From TrEMBL:
All copies of domain GGDEF, residue ranges: 284-417
Record-level Gene Ontology MF annotations: diguanylate cyclase activity
Protein name (record): Diguanylate cyclase (GGDEF) domain-containing protein
Span list, region Disordered: 415-463
Compositional bias annotation for Pro residues: 416-426
Low complexity biased stretches: 427-443
SMART domains, alphabetized: GGDEF
Length: 463
């Protein structure tokens, strides 16, 4: 993947081997510091509040009942299945009542209990992510709990339907969501400084799900405050909503490549077939790109597969950032990506392919103590020019990609269709086959690169 312009790749040292066993050590240093700081703050607050807590049996019983409801939801998730990439589980419906009805120290312990169950019963994920998530939710719940108890000294007023208590509960729930989102957004931006804050904070679907979770949390709090037995009536609707949400996420996960978040090969093929049928009916143009990361094996061999996965994710993020919303982009397997460009003509396809090549060539991906730069080779094919169906377009683009690799990588190539028949005196000689493109009348070639080959050339385009 790392091509002629990448930073020197060093052999794996002791730190790299440790990163294989402890993935946190393979992350950016600012991210490691931030995650450790949040977890340390959470532990300090737990120790401080536990030392001064006034433990009462009614509080312990309420806490146990809410955690038991959360455990039932987790068991339902396990039975339905929760693969990587499925992240929304409606557990805030149980964390929030703990924050509103009980002293703040319980809000710190509730995510620890449920995340431990998730790790053991549902899916064992990277440990530092699980620990950080529990710490972030715990601090958010603690902040919400302090705010609510400061505004409403008697939590029983919430279950009695006191309007001010309900408004304060909503305010505390919003505070819970904002603090949790902020802590996670800082982590995401620290992990990828080139990502925009809006991308990390704002997502319409995620915000709607947050609103649903907060409404559920406030409703469960009111019911739980009235009588713990009412949890038996609130639990089935929450489980049903959770199963519906997980089912939708599972359908999305089945279409998505877990390492890059792009469409997987099967889902991309279905989307591409649909676009090709639409283009035939409307008579519009359409282009297909096959993108391959140059010398990807060198990165895996030198830095390990975890770093290789980071490079794949970084390239995928750049593709999403540079392409239009309606372009169909997916991972075809290994280090190969495919892009379908609806309504793109010959010139636009060349410009997009070249822009992707230049942008990705100027990325710097952190790995251990080095910054890896990678290059890509791109094969381009046009509908009605190089083929009329997906198989023909993929074949033409793959041949162009092979030619780009043959010519030295880090370039864009496109097959050229034979020109219309010319008079005998104007036809090229036998040494220049008509199916080869030629940008210089004296130099026939197969697919010609569209920009200078050598990345170190002074005319190499800059982003």
């Amino acid at each position: 993947m790392a091509a002629t312009s990448h930073a020197p790749i060093k052999s794996r040292d002791g730190v790299s081997r440790l990163a294989g066993r402890w993935p946190l050590l393979g992350q950016r240093r600012p991210l490691v510091i931030y995650l450790c700081a949040i977890v340390a703050i959470d532990l300090c607050v737990i120790a401080l509040l536990t030392a001064s807590a006034d433990v009462r049996w009614p509080d312990l019983v309420t806490f146990g009942a809410l955690m038991a409801c959360g455990a039932v939801c987790i068991e339902a998730s396990r039975r339905l299945g929760m693969p990587a990439g499925v992240s929304r589980d409606l557990l805030s419906a149980w964390w929030l009542p703990v924050a509103l009805l009980l002293p703040p120290v319980y809000a710190l312990f509730s995510p620890i209990v449920l995340h431990l169950l998730l790790q053991v019963r549902v899916r064992a994920t990277v440990l530092y992510r699980r620990v950080f998530s529990a710490a972030a939710i715990g601090l958010a719940g603690c902040a919400a709990s302090f705010a609510f108890h400061w505004l409403v000294p008697d939590p029983g007023r919430l279950s009695r339907g006191w309007p001010v208590a309900i408004v304060c509960a909503v305010v505390a729930a919003v505070l819970f969501a904002l603090v949790n989102i902020a802590l996670i957004a800082v982590a995401a931006h620290t992990a990828d400084p080139e990502s925009s804050w809006r991308e990390n904070v704002w997502n319409k679907e995620s915000v709607l799900l947050d609103v649903v979770e907060l409404c559920l949390g406030v409703t469960v709090s009111i019911c739980c405050g009235l009588n713990l037995a009412l949890l038996l009536f609130t639990l089935p609707p929450v489980v049903l909503l959770q199963r519906s949400l997980l089912h939708a996420q599972l359908q999305a996960a089945a279409r998505t490549d877990p390492k890059t978040g792009l469409l997987n090969a099967a889902a991309w093929q279905r989307e591409a077939d649909t676009e090709i049928v639409r283009a035939r009916r409307s008579g519009e143009t359409l282009a297909l790109l096959i993108i391959d990361i140059d010398h990807f094996k060198r990165v895996n061999d030198a830095h390990g597969h975890l770093v290789g996965d980071q490079v794949l994710a970084a390239v995928a993020a750049m593709l999403r950032a540079q392409l239009r919303d309606y372009d169909v982009v997916g991972r075809f397997g290994g280090e190969e990506f495919v892009v379908l460009l609806p309504a793109a003509d010959h010139r636009e396809a060349r410009q997009i392919a070249e822009r992707l090549r230049v942008r990705i060539g100027h990325m710097a991906i952190p790995a251990d103590d080095a910054l890896i730069q990678v290059t890509i080779s791109v094969g381009v094919a046009l509908m009605s020019v190089h083929g009329d169906d997906l198989i023909d377009l993929l074949t033409a683009a793959d041949l162009a990609l092979y030619r780009a690799k043959e010519l030295g990588r880090d370039r864009v190539c496109m097959p050229v269709v034979p020109p219309p028949a010319a008079p005998p005196e104007a036809r090229p000689s036998a040494s220049a086959p008509p199916h080869l493109s030629q940008t210089d009348p004296q130099t026939p070639t197969m697919p010609m690169p569209m920009q200078p080959v050598d990345p170190g050339h002074p005319n190499h385009p800059q982003p």
